Amino acid sequence: MALTDEVYARLLALRTGLREFERWSEQQARAAGLTPAQHQLLLAVRGHADPRGPTIGEVADYLLLKHHSVVGLIDRADAAGLVERTRDDRDHRVVRLRLSAAGAQRLEALSALHIEELERLAARLPGAAAAPSGQPGAGGTAPARREPAGGAGDRDP
Fold this sequence. Notes:
Arc Repressor Mutant, subunit A
């Protein structure tokens, strides 16, 4: 089945909107005194469902990075006073992360801005993410996550 011009236009609008949002997000993180990678780290820690906090491996999964790349990012965030490492109560070999008060404060301010920007983006892209009935992708199934080849995405400038 051939895709229509409308589908290609919607895909382009969505991809462009995503790139614009990503660039905007990076600028907001820098304006808040964070690197984009630190912002993503803070969100991964705060958004984790387990109240004990995520493990380093879980953060690596969220950020789609290798374990050793995330350790470096966490080291820098810990040194900046944004996150804290704690030992798991049940298994002391496991290290968990939590936000420091400063990290939580920065993340909350950034997240409020991001929610507003996402609402603006959604208003500009009505239906861009939804595939029309009968078109490939119309089931709403997300693609499988894959590990990137390297850990360059977490480099702090």
